[in-house]
Amino acid sequence: EVHLVESGGGLVQAEGSLRLSCGASGFTFGDYAIGWSRQAPGKEREGLGCIQTGNDTTYYADSVKGRFTISRDNAKNTAYLQMNGLKPEDTAVYYCKAWAFWGQGTQVTVSS
To answer: Which residues make beta-bridge pairs with 51?
Structure first.
């Protein structure tokens, strides 16, 4: 059974940093691209970026480019979302995705 579990969310002040983790099980982690998305209250889910397999090429949405970094450790079956320079508008539930499977999300709240 496929499981994706996000962790590392919390409350942080503006301009602070957080690193989210996405732990995976139930599939061959290194064979799949991992995506990160977020959903703020009253808004649609927004794709933030992804990391490919093999050469670990990353792609980012313009809203987070230069501030967020996606990485992965296949030996640990874990992907990461390093978030720097956080803004109040980054407040949302953050999700990771592999193929058609989503985690349950982790809340990130950025205070001004």
So the answer is: 34, 58
